[in-house]
Amino acid sequence: MAGLSANEARQLAQSAFAALRNGQTEQARRQFERLVAGGVAEASVFIGLAYACASLSDRASAHSAADRALALEPSGLQVLMLKGDLLHAEADGQAAAAYYRAALRAAPDPSRLSPNLRNELKRAQDMIAHYAGKFESFLVTELEKAGFDERRDARFAQSLELMLGKKEIYPQQPRAYYFPGLPLIQYFDNTRYPWLKPLEDATDDIRAELLRILEEDAGAFQPYVQGDPDRPKVNQGPMLNNPAWSAFFLWKNGEPVPENMARCPRTMAALEGVPKPHVPGRTPSMLFSLLRPGAHIPAHHGMLNTRMIGHLPLIVPPGCALRVGNETREWKVGQAWLFDDSIEHEAWNNSAETRVILLFEAWREEISERERQLVSAMLASIDAYGGKKADWD
């Protein structure tokens, strides 16, 4: 090393770092500068110099030293944090947040860090949240000046949450059949489906028929996910043959269940207006879906994206909810909804009571009548070739 022997450099570095730790920042700065002038080009030396300059409020020199450290060690956690702090002190929030985010990305597993560096990571997270909150507040204020209303502009509001990183994008990922070109919608807008209102209006009648079945013949409910002896049982999840998620079918796999339908005439009348997909052996399925206390239906995807799944809540204790993609909703008795089950979804009952909904299928409105016929013909052809409807959808 030009100007300094290895031993001299080591002793000078030890002295410089000791001075920095003891608050002797002027002395530390001089010693770090001597190391640099003596040809010691190590990231740790430039980091020490940057800290000393920052403590002396010489931010220009601190930036210069930090930049030289970053050139040698682009993923250095300490120097990334220091750059963020320098920019934060200069009120350059966007640049500061960029360095704090880089520090988080560069950090190894926290278990491998010292307590001090773990605290630094926590501080980086806090600073990122601080700047994200400021940016969001500014953005919403400006948008409100332009007429933005979160309830009226629900779709734009969701795009804003995605852009701000508050939610992630969940694509349609049907397990068997994907129909291209359909809008990515998690929960559909009820106002587009006038046939839902008569169904909601019949809630009391439907609920009365359900309660009578539960009182007279609770054993009529069978596990919703049932194994097929001709199919392997691997990867079928904890709900396989599990009565925690049970069903009383009115239609099952495209076939009516006459004895059950006869017990629920008002329910069947209320379902008349639903645009049901008809494929023998496949669809529709219409049922009372029962979820027992403490049950959790794990996250999964449905078979195809050409349909909507409808729920009409009938018995709903507190603590019962459905997550579709990045949106979670709690069921409320008599308030129906439609969702795309080809998007990852899960459900849970965190109460001490049973939850029951009426579940049904409906065509997506974007699919034309001819396309519906073709989809139905395709599914029927698959069955004719020997395919079987999967156990879980």
Task: Write the topology of this structure.
Layout: H1 6-21, H2 25-37, H3 43-55, H4 59-72, H5 77-89, H6 93-106, H7 115-145, H8 154-163, H9 196-201, H10 203-217, E1 222-223, E2 245-252, E3 255-256, H11 258-262, H12 265-270, E4 286-291, E5 296-300, E6 307-315, E7 320-324, E8 327-330, E9 337-339, E10 345-349, E11 355-363, H13 369-385
Strand tally = 11
How many structural domains are formed by the residues? 2
Mean pLDDT: 90
Largest sheet: number of strands, sense, barrel closure: 7 strands, antiparallel
The CATH topology of the largest domain corresponds to Jelly Rolls
Uncertain regions spanning at least 5 consecutive residues: 389-393
Keywords: Dioxygenase, Oxidoreductase
GO molecular function: dioxygenase activity
Protein name: Tetratricopeptide repeat-containing protein
GO cellular component, one term: membrane
